[in-house]
Predict the 3D structure of the following.
Amino acid sequence: MKDNNTFREIGEKLLEADSVLVYPHVNMDGDALGSAVAVCRTLRNLGKTCWILIEDDIPRNLQFLDRGYCTCDQNVVSAPDVSLCLDCGDVSRFLKRKDKFREGKVNICIDHHRTTVPFCQYNYVDPDAAATGQLVYYLLQEMGTEIDGEIADAIFAAITTDTGNFQYSNTTKECHEITAELYEKGVDVRRVSQQVYESVRLERVMLHGKALSQLEIFAGGQAAMTVVTQRMLRETGAGMDETEGIVDKLRAIDGVEIAILVKEDVDKIKLSLRAKSRANVAVIAEHLGGGGHTKAAGGTMKMTLEEALPLIRQEVENALL
Amino acid sequence: MKDNNTFREIGEKLLEADSVLVYPHVNMDGDALGSAVAVCRTLRNLGKTCWILIEDDIPRNLQFLDRGYCTCDQNVVSAPDVSLCLDCGDVSRFLKRKDKFREGKVNICIDHHRTTVPFCQYNYVDPDAAATGQLVYYLLQEMGTEIDGEIADAIFAAITTDTGNFQYSNTTKECHEITAELYEKGVDVRRVSQQVYESVRLERVMLHGKALSQLEIFAGGQAAMTVVTQRMLRETGAGMDETEGIVDKLRAIDGVEIAILVKEDVDKIKLSLRAKSRANVAVIAEHLGGGGHTKAAGGTMKMTLEEALPLIRQEVENALL
C-alpha cells in the first residue's frame, strides 16, 4: 500500500495546475460535496478553471452549496491538469466518470474511509479523520489560500454531516477546533444547519408522523415495528425514499433492542432492521431471505403485508426471547 | 444594576466555603443541571459539603448526570456558607427554595439570560454566553481545580442542550473551543449524546407521531401549527413535558418560517412559537398575552382550544402576509 503524500506535495500540484476537475462520490453526501465546493471555490478564487464533475443529482438539502460549481458535462474541460477525487474509496464511487478521471495529467485522492487503498498518483487517506472536509481544511491551510465565508460554510457542512452534527463516535477534538476556527473565517453555522437539517419536505414529516403514531411494540418491549403502506404514501404525498430515518427513530425508543420498518412495495415487502446494542439483525434478515450487517440489515419478501408481518414478528421474537 | 463580579472573586468565595448549596432553576434543563453537577462535583472533589437542592423532578434524559448530588431535602445543610444559583434569572426560578437560598451566608448568581438583573451579593451574568455551563467552565478554570471526565460530561451536556447541539444561533466559537478542550479532560460525547438524545420514551414517540401527522399548514406554507390535546396525552400515555421538540420539527419543514405548538392544558391554552429566520415571534406572543425572544416565544391563553386557534392563526398571518 502506497504511503500518503504530504498536503504540501498535493497543494503544490493544485497550485501549479491551470485546470482541475473535482470528483465527489455518487450518492454524494455533505462531506463529499462540501469538500469539493471548498476546493473548487478556492481554485476559482485563484483564477483557475475548476469544476465539480458529478453523475447524479445533488440532494435537495445540499443544493445551497452549489453556486455554479457542479456539472454533469464531461466535456467541460478536456484533459485537465489535475483530476481530484474526494471522499472516494475507489473508482467504483465514480464509475461513469472513471475514464474522464484518468484524463487528468495528474490524479489525486483525498479520503478518510478505513477501507480505502491509495489508488492515485498522489494520495492522502486518513481513516482517523471524521470527515474528508477536515483533511481539505488542513490542505487549504498548507496551501496558504484564503478561506472565505463560503469555503468555511462548505467545510462546516462536510464536518457537521459526517459527524451526525458532532454526535457520532467518530467526532474528535479536531472537529471542534476546526469549527471554532471557521467562525473566524465567517462561517454561517445557522444558515448551513438550516439548509442541511431544517428544510424537510412537509410530505416527509407527515409520513414519519403517521408511521410513528402507528408503531407496534412486542417481544416484551424489546422490539418496535412500524409499516409504511402504499396508501400512506398516497395520503401524504411522500415517496418511499422518504421513509429514511423512521427506523432510527424506532431504535431510539427506550428499551427497544430491535427496530423494524416494513415497507409495502407494489408487488413485494421491503424490510429494514436495526439493532441497538447486542442483537444481530443480519441473522434475522438472512432467515427472511435478506442480509446485511449485525446492526443494520434488510431484505425483500415476495408476499403480501398480511403474510409477511407474522413471519417477521416470529423471527424477531426468536432472536430476542 | 450591579456590575458583574469577577470569576476570581466568585471562585475565592467557593474555595473558602466548607458547605455550598447549588440551585438550578425549576423545570431544569441540561444547562441548569449540567452546570450544577459540574460545580457540585468540583467542590466535593475538594472535600467540601455540597448538594444540588431541587424542588421538582429531574427529566429522564438528564438523570444520568445526577450521581448522588441532587436532593429535595432542604435540611441537608443548615445555613451553608454559600448559596449558588445557576441559570436562574430571579428567585421566581426557585420559588419553593428561596427562603433556604437566603440562609446562605453568601449568595451568588451565575447566569446567561438577557433579562437577568443581578440580584445576589455576587453575580456573573453574561447574556452573550450560549450556556451557563460555559461560564461555569471559565469559573472552574479560574479556580484552577481539576476538571475530570464527569465534570467534562456535565459541562458538555450543558452546552450541547442549550445550543440545540451547536445548531441554534446562540452557538459561538467559544462553544466549540470549550468542547475541544473537554476532549482533553476525557468528555464522553457519545455517552452524553446517547443519554440526552437517544433514550426516548415510547409514549413520547407516539405523541410526536400523532402531533406531526395532524399538523396544519397555513399562511401560504409559511406557518406550521399542531395541537396537543389532553385526549392525545391520555391516548399515548405521554406527559405534556414530552411535547418538547415537536415545535422544532414543525420549524424544520421546508418553507415554514413560523412554527406553532398549541398545548391544551386543563383550564388554559399554552403556546410555543418558533421562527426560522426573519420572523419575530416575540411580537406575536405579546399580542397573545405572552412574550419571549424573537426566534422563540410563548404564552398562556385563558380560553378553550376552539377560541384560541383562530386568534393564533390571525396573528401569525398578520405577521407573515
